[in-house]
Each structure stands twice: as structure tokens, then as C-alpha cells.
Sequence to fold (418 residues):
Amino acid sequence: MTIRVTTLENGLRVVTDSMETVETVSVGSWVEVGTRQEDAAINGVSHMLEHMAFKGTKRRSAQAIAEDIEAVGGHLNAYTSRETTAYYAKVLKEDLPLAVDMIGDILQNSVMDEEELARERTVILQEIHQANDTPDDIIFDRFQETAFPGQALGRPVLGTAELVGGMSRDTLMGYMKGHYSAPRMVLAAAGRVDHDRFVDLVTGNFAFLPPYVERSGESFDYKGGDYRESRDLEQMHLLLGFQGVSYTDPDYYPSLILSTLLGGGMSSRLFQEVREKRGLAYSVYSYASSYTDGGTFGIYAGTSEGEVAELVPVICGELEKVRERVEGVEIDRARAQLKASLLMSLESTSSRCEQKARQMMVYGRLVPIEEVVEKIGAVDAASVVAVAHRIIASRPTVAAIGPVGTLESYDAIAARLS
Fold:
């Protein structure tokens, strides 16, 4: 296993993670741009641009893009998040030149055909409607909107139906030109790949990226608050959350341990108390979500109307308990879960590829696996209790969809956590 990094003259960072025991390669371009870089008037443009990149270039039609990658048994996909847009492929080792060529083509030569744009608007509108019809999905958007009111971090990745319906070709092309520059990209490959050959491929296929565009994006400004939407549903979907920590915060790993022991598996406190002992919910879990300069920490639960009144006090009670004490055995179990998840991910070329790209974007360097394992192992009970105090002391965010009539007031919930 060999991991190498080369920065090209235009600022493009090229990373390889060579795995001699596999026959495939995962390769992708990670771009430091997402919903957070969007003005309110063009919310959703990052996601629409991700869709339109596959709808034809100067060299390939939309159908040819699909046929060319599938003709070699590979697959090509993309995703948009609040800080990142990624375009990636997985192919057999001998087809790496095709994958690099194709990703370079869609990122530099997309034509944004008007007819394709009209069709794709309809597809994205269906995606938005589907999300709105899925309460355990859309509740996370409502949480973000409440936690970050009037901010890019609070706007949905998909955008809104109104904005997407009016998104023009010029808007898409201008946004791509203004944000997709070489220094804001990482080209990563993991699997059966030779670094020098990969650098040559990238150099030849990514020669027309802008060398520099100014970094943009609002600063992190968590507010918290209350959102309730009454719907005729069998369950109320609840998200209770707080301000979390960034990737680079000293409390990053303690927050991961906290989330794991609180609601990260069947042995976690929330699962045992809420589901196993009381039967108040089928699904209950916690999560720690980080950004480059901040984060959120949340607890999700879905419960029937009759259990709402009992559920919230129980969750708040578990939060209070974790601020008082955590047991060594819990820490050990959470450490083991995180380490196992990390080490198991090393068996996947796709996971390793994304991991290396993200490390370059967040830390500006590759982080050895031994360093991560050491930091996980260094987390103790005192640091977990301390980060629990820090997180829960922030103003809570409550988001609920469904039969919310018996959900106690925001002030009452906040008082339980004070």
C-alpha cells in the first residue's frame, strides 16, 4: 500500500492510494463548493449543476456518457453536500484512462443544452417533491433551516421548486466558471493505480480548469430555535439538536465517541432506554455532523402520537445523564465501534478514495490511519463528559413533523436541558 500526493502547476491536488490486491480503481473529483457557496436567489444551483454535468459535453451526448462507462462495466455518479460536490467513477484497472477522461470532460466541456436542462428541471422537481413527501428525510432540512435561519447552511441542498424552475443555463455556466477552479479540486484514486501514470492522465485531461477563483461562503453562525409542522401521519418525526464541532476542533473525536455511546448502535443509551426498555420508538439515534468551521449534534426519533409526551422527557433525561457520567466500558465499546468502522472502510476502494480527498480538503494533508486510531484511543471519560456539557449548553434546535399537538413547548424542552 502506497499513498502519494502531487500538486500540479495549476494548483490541482492529485492523490493516489495504491492497493495491489484489487483489480478495480475508484476515482473522483471532489470540489470545495456546495450549498454554502450559494446566494439565496440561486439556492440549488450546485445540485442542479451536478445533474447537468452528465447531460452532454462537446464530445459526448448524455446517452454516450452513460453508454461509454457501462460498456466497460463501470459506474459513474455524483453527489452534492453543503460544502462539497463530488463526481466519481469505479472501473476495472485497465479502464482508468476512460474514467479520468470522462470526469475531466464533464467538468470542463459540459454544454448545458437547453432541452436537456428543461427535462432535468422536471427530474429535480420530482426529487424535491419526493423529499417533501418523506418526513424522515425532509426533517433534516427543516432542522438546518431552524438552526441556521437566513443562512446558506440553512437552505436545502436540492433548492426549492420555485428557484429550480427558474434556473437558467447562464446561471449554471456562470456558477461553474466562478467556483470550479483547479486549486479548489482534489483528484483522488484508490485501488490498482500507479501514481505517476495517474498524474500524467490527470495532467492531460484537466488542462482547461481556471487556475484560481476566490473562495467564498458565509461564516458559521448557529442560532437554534423551534420548527413544528402538523401533518396527518402515523408518526411524529423529531430532531433535537445543538451546536456541534468542526473537523479540526480538539473535541472532534470526543464528540464522535459521545454520539456513538449515546445513540450509535443497539447497545447505546438511547436505543436501550427508548426502544428496548420503553418501546417508545422504532428508530432512534444520534449523530455528529461537522463542517470546516463548526458542526451540529442531533438526535432523531420517530414515534406515534401517544408516545410523544413520554419520549421527549426520556431523551432529555439521557442527555442530562451523559453530562454527569459515562462509564469506561461504554468508552471502550464506542472506541471499538469507531475503530472497526474506520478499518473496515479501508477494504473499499470507494471509501478510501473519498477519505483521502476529504482529508486534503479539510486538513490540507493526508492523515495516517495510525494517527486517527491514536486520537480515538486517547478519548477518555472526562473528555466525553466535557464535550457533552459544551454541546448541550448551546441553544437547542427542535424540529418536528407529524402529530405535534402533544409535543411540549420549546421553552419546556429547553428548560429540561438548562
